[in-house]
Amino acid sequence: MAAQGAGMANKGPSYGMSRQVQDKIASKYDQDLELILVEWISQQCGSGVGKPEAGKGGFQTWLKDGCVLSELINSLFSGDKPIKKVQSSPMAFKQMEQISQFLTASEKYGVIKSDMFQTVDLWEGKDLAAVQRTLSALGSVAVTKDEGTYRGDPSWFFKKAQENKRDFSDDQLKAGKNVIGLQMGSNKGASQEGMSYGRSRQIL
Question: Polar residues compositional bias: what residue ranges (predicted)?
Answer without folding.
Answer: 184-194
